[in-house]
Structure formats: structure tokens, C-alpha cells
Amino acid sequence: MNICMAHRGWSGKAPENTMAAIRLALTEPAIRAMEVDVQLSKDGVPVLFHDFTLERTTNGSGLLKDHTYEELTALDAGSWFGASCAGEKIPTLEEALQAVKGKCVLNIELKTAGDLYPGIEESVIRLVEQYEMKSDVYITSFDHEVVKRVRQLDDTMKTGLIVYGKPVLLQEQLKETGASILSMAYPYLTPDFVRSTLDSGIGLIAWTVDDPQAIQTLMSWHSDVQICTNHPDRMLSLLQ
After folding, report:
1. Bridge partners of 142?
2. pTM above 0.70, yes or no
3. What is the pLDDT of residues 124-157, one digit of tens each?
4. Fewer CB atoms < 10 Å away: N or C end of the chain?
5. How far is Cα 88 from Cα 14, in angstroms, rounded to an integer?
6. What 3 state SS string does the chain have?
7. Tell me: the pLDDT tens digits for 10-49?
8. Parallel, antiparallel, or unpaired for β 46-48 and 105-110?
């Protein structure tokens, strides 16, 4: 059965990448996976956050990387979503791992570009190993060099390439980086591509799929496609 993956937690009903969104997703056992974005604070703490800048989802400003963990935790990361979410904080990856351990798979997307976050791979691997969660974690990124480094540091870690579009030589890229998962923007998927990718032993995540008709179509193509959505309830109603 297709895995329902909550994008940035249950971000359709709670502020993205917060413990509120994670806790809400954990209330629904049929949500079997969750995706979160990870960056590093100025003092090297892995935190959950999507944008490189703070303005869209907090009352802070500037680049996340220029703020210490203490400064980041002082920000309000919930009011933008709604008054009832005021006071939500930027959580650490450690908090997320503690919350989801034994309950669902966590897809950790490393948000980085160029040399923005040197050492992010080591920091994340260290936490995953500390909580003995390697079997329940994927580490993915648009930066395929980062994915390759994760595998060089720990060749037992499950990793995935994120792509927007449909690049050529994808199988070669997966082999070169050691990735066993492909996370692709869903408009670029076709039935033949889905089947051939999954038949080759590569896991496939379709993102970010919020339209019920698109979800239904993807599910009809193959039962092993993992569907990453802001609105898990829309997918779960189809599964039922």
C-alpha cells in the first residue's frame, strides 16, 4: 500500500517544520512517514526549517545560519499560520527524532547550497546514530554531493536524491552517490518511469501532491510510490 508521507509534518493543519505539525501527524497511525527540512544554527545545532531566511515563517529576519540556537528558539514560528499557533518554536532535529522514534519513518532533507553548512552531514548522522534510528531514517537533498558525502561517512545510511524535473542518467547518478531513493516532483512522473524505477530496486517518493485526483492517479500507477503531501487527510480518505 502506498505510504503517506506528511510534508514538513502535517503542514496543511499546523505550521510547517514545528513540533505541532509533527505531533499532529503522529496522531494518525496511517501516516507512516514524515518529511522535515534541516539546517544548522550559527553554533552548529541541526534545526528544522525550510527557507534559508527567517521572514516567511517567523518574526525574525535575515539568514538562519547567522543566528545561534538560543536566538532561533526566541522566535515565534507559529503566528504566521494562525493565532492559535502563536508561540510555536523552531525545533531541533533531536526533538523530532525523540518524538517520531518507533512511530514512523523520518525523511530528513538537508537544506544546503554550496558551502553554506560545512559539517551538516556529520551532525545529522551523529544524532541518527545516537538515537539508533538508521533503519527508520532517510537522508535526502537537492545537493547530490551532500548525499554522496553522507554515504562516504556511513555506507549503511539510507539516502535519496531530490530532483525537480527529469534529468538524464538518473540511474547513473543514483549509483554514483550511493542513493537508494529518488524523490521527484510529481508532475514529471509517468507510469512507465514509475514502474521502471521501482522495478530497478530504487524507492520512489512523489512530492508535493495535494490534489486528490493527482494522488489517486499516482496510487493507481504503483502501490509502492510514497506520496509526500501537505494534506495527509486527503490521501487517507482515498485509502479508506
Report:
1. none
2. yes
3. 999 999 999 999 999 999 999 999 999 999 999 9
4. C
5. 10
6. CCCEEEECCCCCCCCCCCHHHHHHHHCCCCEEEEEEEEEECCCCCEEECCCCECCCCCCCCCEHHHCCHHHHHCCCCCCCCCHHHCCCCCCEHHHHHHHHCCCCEEEEEECCCCCCCCCHHHHHHHHHHHCCCHHHEEEEECCHHHHHHHHHHCCCCEEEEEECCCCCCHHHHHHHHCCCEEEEEHHHCCHHHHHHHHHCCCEEEEECCCCHHHHHHHHHHCCCCEEEECCHHHHHHHHC
7. 999 999 999 999 999 999 999 999 999 999 999 999 999 9
8. unpaired
Catalytic residue among 7, 67, 144, 231: 7
CA–CA gap between residue 147 and residue 158 (Å, rounded): 10
CA-based max dimension of the chain: 49
Is 222 one of the catalytic residues?
A: no
Domain ranges of the chain: 4-52+93-239
CATH topology of domain 4-52+93-239: TIM Barrel (3.20.20)
Burial of 59 (0-12, 13-18, 19+ CB in 10 A): middle
Q: What are phi and psi of 236, to 5 degrees?
A: -65, -30
Buried b (16+ CB within 10 A) or exposed e, 69-84: bebbbebbbbbbbeee
Euclidean distance between CA atoms 3 and 1, whole angstroms: 6
Cα–Cα dist 4/230, whole Å? 10
- The owner of cell 556529520 is 122
